[in-house]
Design goal:
The structure holds 2 protein chains of 2 kinds. Chain A contains 13 helices and 17 strands. In chain A, helix 2 runs parallel beside helix 4. In chain B, the strands form 2 sheets. Chain B has a 7-stranded mixed β-sheet, sandwiched between helices. In chain B, strands 9-11-10-8-12-13 form a 6-stranded mixed β-sheet. In chain B, helix 5 packs parallel to helix 6 and helix 8 crosses helix 9. Chain B starts with a strand and ends with a helix. In chain B, about 50% of the residues are buried. The chains are: A alpha/beta, B alpha/beta.
């Protein structure tokens, strides 16, 4: 089971996480994965930047805040018997962190490698604290770093790729004996090491990735992700009053939902579990009696309804390039996406009519200006593109469900429902997986579109 | 090319002999000039960055049972870690005894070598039987070569045959006799109507079986080879723990006799199909190409378009195994040519 940063945000939450482990320990053999406390990782990123720029006053302020947070939490969460050893350990790590920051500010250099080393302190500090809190409840634990647990990766610092087979083999070799002694391994999420032993971080997916790798290596029955929501929902409950938690979804559906903003594992993190068909359960750490959402390789029907969930991505914009010169001109699309790619604009949706006179891209609103500028510079004045226009007021509505595959008429129902509310649909896309239909409407009309689709497919009704 | 030898038993010594005797021929034909910069056996090690004198190392080994008395830079203890990372070399050759429990010490030696950016040639099946997917991934990651021709069929190129002579042909399954020791025992039980114990004793006397014959007669050696073929030829990620293994140690003369009456022989067969991997004594018709006598090995590759292709050859022996290692070395050498 993995505890996210929000489930470890303070002493009370850490004690709660420990009780959750205790609650399930009699019937299960458990491996625990810990994220960094709260937003410590973001603070460390900031700290690294400040140190690199030589802003030592501000850097030392953040540094001491991080150090104090962990020392205080360690004092508050462990029994007297545990606290001496734990505090020594936290103290050592705090000193090491301080030296690292000093090193960065002396050199005024923060390489991806030293950055990973710096970021690793978040989990390296939180993990022994959680382990001691669990120990204080009378269970046996062993705190391990990702490297000590056997996770090795390539040298892509900042977003390292695990060497899956090497890691699986090592994790089994190192954790099986610990589990056999009835001890609970508590492993730092997010961090791994190269075969030479340098610390790396797993980047997107972070601690979930660690949990997924551990589950796959040890062939666990399930992987539980403890977070601060009840599970995956049919829609955002702030928009739809009768939105409810989905009991089961497939990996394919979860993939779509995670892309469309659900509080869910990153697709990258899901992969090891999906590959070895190990179900993942999303649960709320403050309501451990709830079952949460089970993500598995099984395709589960939703009470005859082809749609499972409808989600919304707000704050996007549409950038449209048009020009009669693009008609029948090979490579026009390539030029558009090269221009966007080289200015680091992530394209979320694409639409091109078969007349080829326009190409529309949906991008995050913060990227709209960048996108327009990049496209204008790259394409105007060559006889290919006449015009680049942007609309800032848009949102994406994504309708997800594996039952849509091969069921005719789903799109008709979706757009029929939207049309009855006189909502104008700007762009439509359906992935070839047929697990999702997504479309763009104005930001103002987005919530209403979510509600009518939720109603149309009766998603609020229990299956 | 500079070489570190870990393990200096029968195979290691045979290799040293061939490298000494065939040196000029290897240089002339393959541009391969072997230079052994370190040798480690279980009791000690010797090193010379300019190349050890192999004939001297062989003499020292024969006289003292270890290379630790090699004049000059030698040590009483074997610190393989230091030898692997601290000796100048392109290739590490691993010939320590196969261990099917945890693969050690070979497993650590191979991991360490690949991590230290050394190519590895291994004759040791243990690490591959237990962790082949991991070792192949590690080699791929460090861009080093991991070669293991010697582990299956010794000198007979079963692995290279499948991967180099059958590209584009779908291999559907593999079965065959992959262990010479058990085949010898079974042949003698059949031909001379010996009991299992007697046949085993005879095999031990002739040097075909080891004093502790467990790895062979319990089917572990055959199983390891099936794992290696499965991973390398069929790209199936399995380990020895996933195989169903039955040895020959409980085989009575009755079963052999019954088979004989129907024109068949009992053979310890390794078998790999789409869904299963097994090692067990099976009845094989005497006229089947894989039904080979004595200590021979035979492997049949079942293919989609050309049916069964069977390769027969000797599957053990120090010199045969050393020859397979040299094949791998020459291959690695050729990668350096531009």
């Amino acid at each position: 089971m993995k505890f996210g940063g929000s489930s470890l945000a303070n002493a009370a939450k850490i004690r709660n996480a420990a009780r959750v482990v205790e609650r399930f320990s009699p019937e299960n053999r458990i491996v625990v994965v810990a994220s960094a406390m709260d937003d410590t990782t973001d603070r460390l990123v900031e700290l690294g930047e400040l140190a690199r720029r030589g802003e030592s006053a501000r850097a030392s302020k953040i540094l001491s805040r991080i150090q104090k947070l962990h020392t205080k939490t360690a004092q508050a969460t462990s029994s007297r018997k545990e606290s001496k050893e734990l505090l020594d350990r936290i103290d050592r790590l705090n000193k090491e962190l301080e030296k690292t920051v000093q090193g960065i500010s002396h050199l005024r250099e923060l390489t991806p490698r030293s950055r990973d080393y710096l970021l690793s302190f978040g989990e390296r500090l939180s993990t022994p604290i959680l382990a001691a809190a669990i120990r204080s409840l009378g269970l046996k634990t062993q705190a391990l770093t990702g490297a000590e647990a056997g996770i090795s990766s390539d040298e892509r610092f900042g977003e390292a790729n695990p060497l899956a087979e090497v890691s699986y083999h090592e994790m089994r070799r190192r954790l099986d004996p610990i589990l056999a002694r009835n001890e609970i391994p508590v492993v730092t999420g997010f961090i791994a090491a190269t075969v030479e032993g340098s610390i790396t971080t797993l980047g997107r997916g972070g601690s979930d990735y660690t949990a997924s790798l551990l589950g796959a290596a040890l062939n666990t029955n399930e992987i539980w992700i403890w977070t601060d929501v009840d599970g995956l929902m049919t829609a955002d409950p702030k928009i739809v009053k009768d939105a409810r938690v989905l009991a089961k979804v497939s990996f394919g559906e979860a993939l779509e939902l995670s892309y469309f903003g659900a509080k869910m594992m990153h697709p990258r993190a899901m992969q090891p579990a999906a590959q070895r068909k190990i179900p993942v359960r999303i649960r709320n750490s403050s309501k451990p009696s709830l079952e949460g959402t089970l993500v598995s390789s099984a395709e589960t029907p939703n009470g005859g309804r082809v749609v499972k969930a409808v989600s919304i991505i707000r704050s996007v914009g549409i950038v449209t390039v048009s020009g009669t010169g693009m008609i029948g001109s090979p490579g026009a699309a390539a030029k558009v996406f090269t221009a966007l790619g080289s200015s680091n604009v992530n394209v979320m949706m694409i639409s091109q009519g078969s007349s080829e006179a326009t190409i529309s891209c949906v991008v995050a609103r913060k990227d709209v200006d960048n996108a327009v500028r990049a496209l204008q510079l790259a394409l105007l004045g060559q006889g290919l593109v006449d015009n680049v226009v942007a609309e800032r007021d848009a949102c994406i509505i994504a309708v997800v469900g594996s039952g849509m595959k091969g069921t005719p008429g789903v799109a008709a129902r979706i757009f029929g429902a939207v049309a009855r509310k006189k909502i104008n649909v700007r762009i439509v896309a359906q992935g070839s997986s047929e697990y999702n239909v997504s479309f763009v409407v104005s930001e103002r009309e987005g919530p209403e579109a979510v509600r009518v689709i939720h109603d149309e497919f009766q998603l609020g009704r229990k299956p | 090319m500079r070489i570190v030898l870990i393990g200096f038993g029968t195979v290691g010594q045979s290799l040293a002999r061939i490298l000494t005797n065939d040196r000029d021929w290897l240089v002339k034909n393959y541009g391969f000039e072997p230079q052994v910069t370190a040798i480690a056996d279980s009791r000690g090690s010797c090193r010379d960055d300019n190349g050890l004198k192999l004939d001297l190392a062989l003499k020292v080994k024969e006289k003292y049972g270890s290379v630790q008395k090699y004049p000059g830079n030698s040590e009483r203890k074997t610190n393989t870690h230091q030898i692997i990372s601290g000796t100048e070399a392109e290739v590490v050759i691993e010939t320590t005894p196969s261990n099917f429990e945890n693969g050690e010490p070979g497993l650590s030696n191979i991991k360490e070598s690949l991590s230290a950016r050394r190519h590895v040639v291994t004759a040791n099946k243990g690490p591959l039987a237990l962790a082949m997917p991991a070792l192949l991934e590690l080699a791929n990651h460090t861009r080093m070569q991991l070669r293991f021709s010697a582990t299956v069929g010794a000198g007979t190129p079963f692995l290279n045959f499948a991967s180099k002579c059958l590209p584009g042909e779908k291999i559907l399954g593999i079965h065959g006799i992959l262990n010479g020791t058990t085949n010898y025992i079974l042949t003698r039980m059949d031909e001379a109507s010996l009991s299992y114990q007697k046949a085993l004793a005879e095999a031990q006397e002739k040097g075909y079986a080891e004093k502790n014959p467990d790895n062979d007669v319990k089917g572990l050696d055959t199983a390891a080879k099936i794992v290696i073929i499965a991973n390398w030829v069929l790209k199936r990620r399995i380990s020895i723990n996933e195989l169903e293994i039955t040895g020959i140690q409980n085989l009575g003369p009755k079963r052999i006799l019954t088979a004989k009456k129907s024109g068949a022989r009992i053979k310890l067969m390794g078998r790999l199909t789409d869904s299963r991997a097994t090692v067990k004594p099976e009845e094989v018709p005497a006229d089947n190409p894989v039904c080979v006598p004595g200590n021979l090995n035979a492997v049949a590759f079942s293919t989609e378009h050309i049916g069964d292709v069977t390769l027969i050859g000797r599957g053990a022996g120090g010199e045969e195994t050393a020859s397979a290692i040299i094949r791998d070395l020459v291959d690695i050498r050729s990668e350096y040519s531009i």
